[in-house]
């Protein structure tokens, strides 16, 4: 474990306020403030500066963070090497994932891993991709299954190891009886004039729909927003608009909606990544978790496993 004061600084970088960083670390704001003041005093440099209601790192703070990220990766690597000297797959593995991946892939993979290793406890967290990265950073999860999104960690982010996992096609979702419902496949641009249902702006689905429509040459006219796919399906079923749904999404069986495959070239897909803290991928428990998730992905039809 690196100095908790360095960890507080690493988390503060993303959150911008002591209060938000403290919440992510399960600490009080006064504790985090004391940690950061003590660290600055010990190093005899200013690490933070106030900008409005937020704080940002000084050049010295940025320099310290580069070293902190290297130290954190080295700690993870050491843990992985030491774990190889233990017998069997045991302990606790925490996996975070966005909702569709958790339901379709992670939950069955976690159950398979748990059942095969009686000494292992597996804990699952469902959240949006940005928060899954946060749980990795704070140590609340060990593996995250996420979607890349604007503002998220870059592929070479020194805090994480990110690897391609799968490509998941998107289908056009229309109400039963819609003029496109009986087609064996459509181009996305054929739905350009339709009203559209998306996720809320904070939900990854909003970005997915916007990006796919832009690639097809139009901006969707948003008529409704939801926080989950049952909500999207309900709005579509009752004629409020059309939407895109990923192939892995589970919809209510009684929803009067039709999935229509898209025939664009290239067809829009969601690309999932697996992510772990840098240095931790070779930990035997994490390695086993990643392997069984990939195994379950290979068993699913309609998706393409990446990186094999």
From TrEMBL:
Single Gene Ontology MF annotation: DNA-binding transcription factor activity
Q: Indicate the segments forming the HTH lysR-type domain, all copies.
A: 1-58
Which Pfam families does the UniProt record give?
Answer: HTH_1, LysR_substrate
Q: Which UniProt keywords apply?
A: Activator, DNA-binding, Transcription, Transcription regulation
Listed under GO cellular component are: protein-DNA complex
Q: Which InterPro entries match?
A: LysR_HTH_N, LysR_subst-bd, WH-like_DNA-bd_sf, WH_DNA-bd_sf
The answer on whether this UniProt entry bears the keyword DNA-binding reads yes
- Answer whether the UniProt record assigns the keyword Repressor to this protein: no
Q: Which PANTHER family did the record assign?
A: LYSR SUBSTRATE-BINDING, TRANSCRIPTIONAL DUAL REGULATOR HCAR-RELATED
Give the protein family: Belongs to the LysR transcriptional regulatory family.
| Official protein name in the record | LysR family transcriptional regulator
Species of the source: Nocardia terrae
């Amino acid at each position: 474990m690196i100095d908790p004061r360095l960890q507080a600084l690493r988390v503060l970088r993303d959150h911008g306020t002591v209060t938000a960083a403290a919440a992510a670390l399960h600490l009080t704001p006064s504790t985090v403030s004391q940690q950061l003041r003590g660290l600055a005093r010990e190093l005899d440099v200013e690490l933070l500066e106030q900008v409005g209601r937020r704080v940002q790192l000084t050049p010295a703070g940025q320099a310290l963070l580069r070293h902190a990220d290297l130290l954190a990766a080295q700690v993870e690597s050491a843990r992985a090497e030491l774990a190889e000297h233990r017998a069997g797959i045991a302990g606790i593995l925490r996996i975070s994932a966005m909702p569709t991946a958790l339901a379709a892939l992670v939950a069955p993979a976690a159950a398979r891993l748990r059942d095969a290793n009686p000494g292992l406890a597996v804990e699952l967290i469902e959240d949006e991709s940005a928060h899954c990265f946060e749980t990795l950073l704070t140590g609340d999860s060990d593996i995250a299954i996420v979607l890349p999104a604007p503002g998220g960690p870059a592929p070479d982010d020194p805090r994480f190891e990110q690897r391609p996992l799968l490509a998941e096609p998107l289908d056009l979702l229309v109400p039963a009886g819609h003029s496109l419902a009986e087609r064996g496949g459509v181009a996305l641009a054929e739905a350009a004039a339709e009203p559209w249902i998306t996720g809320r702006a904070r939900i990854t689905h909003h970005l997915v729909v916007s990006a796919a429509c832009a690639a097809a040459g139009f901006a969707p006219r948003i008529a409704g927003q939801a926080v989950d796919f049952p909500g999207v399906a309900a709005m579509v079923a009752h004629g409020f608009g059309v939407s895109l749904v990923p192939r892995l999404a589970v919809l209510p069986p009684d929803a009067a909606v039709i999935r229509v495959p898209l025939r664009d070239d290239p067809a829009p897909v969601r690309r999932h990544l697996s992510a772990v803290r840098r240095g931790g991928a070779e930990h035997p428990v994490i390695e086993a978790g990643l392997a069984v998730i990939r195994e379950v992905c290979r068993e699913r039809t309609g998706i393409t496993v990446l990186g094999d």
